[in-house]
């Protein structure tokens, strides 16, 4: 039986076209570092130097590289890491078109939704300490009552934590399958409070899921809670 916690935040290669240039004759597949010493320069010249050092075949449209400058690369790098460093800031990336060939392509713009989600998770992670305490407190409270003791059921719950540390307005988002157990859990939550108040900037309400995961079925979560 495990509680997973989260905060409910309300917000709300087809072919190449044009002239292809070719640098070097073959790509040496290697994981060990190669010594590079390529200063910042026009990208075409930098790619020639990269191909000579890494023995890597790079295909690209002349128009794609025109007017761009490479980043400096100096030191030991794998071929992939070296090329990524060399292309930094150019707006270009690369794909493998064959086992021994690389093709330059325009870098994909970051997905704004993915970036927003990553930023949201990073923000929520600031409250992990408090949420961990809430999680432990709920488990310990449920374990004290046989009718609510965690077992072979799952339930999602939503609630607020007041500035005094008390749970307010607890709601079960779905039934555990037993009405008497539902009422017992809701009653226990409504009387529960914590010594630590929530961070003032933490969004609420809090949604937590009490779920019986396969990996925890052989453990007595209430015995574990008693050790804390």
What's the number of domains? 2
Give the DSSP E fraction (strand runs of 2 or more residues). Answer: 25-35%
- Report the CATH topology name of the largest domain: Fusion Protein Consisting Of Minor Coat Protein, Glycine Rich Linker, Tola, And A His Tag, Chain: A, Domain 2
Name the helix and strand elements from N-terminus to C-terminus, one letter apiece. EEEHEHEHEEHHEEHEH
- Please outline the major beta sheet: 4 strands, antiparallel
Choose one word for the global shape.
elongated
CATH architecture label name of the largest domain: 2-Layer Sandwich
First-residue to last-residue Cα separation: 16 Å
Structural class: alpha+beta
CATH class of the largest domain: Alpha Beta
Going across the biggest sheet, name each strand in turn. Answer: 1-10-8-9
Task: Give the averaged pLDDT, no decimals.
Answer: 80
State the low-pLDDT regions, or none.
Answer: 1-30, 214-218
| Number of H/I helices | 7
Question: How many DSSP E strands?
Answer: 10
Q: Write down the Rg.
A: 28 Å
Share of helix, binned: 25-40%
Care to give the gist of this entry?
The chain has helices at 43-54, 62-65, 79-86, 112-124, 128-143, 179-190, 221-227, and strands spanning 2-7, 20-23, 34-38, 57-61, 73-77, 92-98, 101-106, 155-161, 167-172, 206-211. The protein is α+β, with helices and mostly antiparallel strands and 228 residues long.
Characterization of this structure:
The chain is α+β, with helices and mostly antiparallel strands and 228 residues long. It has two domains: 87 residues, Phage tail protein beta-alpha-beta fold, CATH 3.55.50.30; 112 residues, Fusion Protein Consisting Of Minor Coat Protein, Glycine Rich Linker, Tola, And A His Tag, Chain: A, Domain 2 (2-Layer Sandwich), CATH 3.30.1150. The strands form three sheets. A four-stranded antiparallel sheet has the order 1-10-8-9, covered by helices on one side. The chain has a four-stranded mixed sheet with strand order 2-4-7-6. It has a two-stranded antiparallel sheet with strand order 3-5. A hairpin with a 5-residue loop joins β8 and β9. α5 packs across α7. The longest helix is centred in the middle third of the chain and has 16 residues.
């Amino acid at each position: 039986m495990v509680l997973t916690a989260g905060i409910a935040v309300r917000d709300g290669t087809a072919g190449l076209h044009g002239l292809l240039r070719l640098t070097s004759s073959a790509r040496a597949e290697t994981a060990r570092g190669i010594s590079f010493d390529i200063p910042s320069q026009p990208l075409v010249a930098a790619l020639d130097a990269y191909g000579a050092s890494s023995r890597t075949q790079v295909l690209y449209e002349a128009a794609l590289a025109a007017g761009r400058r490479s980043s400096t690369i100096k030191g030991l790098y794998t071929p992939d890491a070296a090329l990524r460093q060399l292309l930094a800031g150019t707006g270009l990336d690369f794909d493998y078109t064959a086992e021994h060939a690389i093709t330059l392509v325009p870098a994909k713009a970051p997905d704004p939704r993915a970036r927003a989600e990553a930023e949201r998770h990073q923000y929520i992670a600031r409250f992990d300490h408090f949420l961990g305490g809430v999680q432990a407190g709920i488990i310990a409270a449920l374990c004290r009552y046989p009718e609510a003791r965690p077992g072979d059921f799952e339930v999602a719950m939503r609630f607020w934590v007041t500035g005094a540390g008390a749970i307010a307005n607890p709601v079960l988002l779905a039934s555990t399958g037993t009405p008497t157990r539902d009422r017992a859990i809701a009653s226990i939550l409504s009387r529960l409070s914590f010594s630590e108040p929530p961070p003032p900037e933490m969004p609420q309400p809090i949604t937590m899921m009490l779920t019986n995961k396969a990996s925890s079925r052989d453990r007595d979560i209430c015995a574990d809670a008693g050790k804390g």
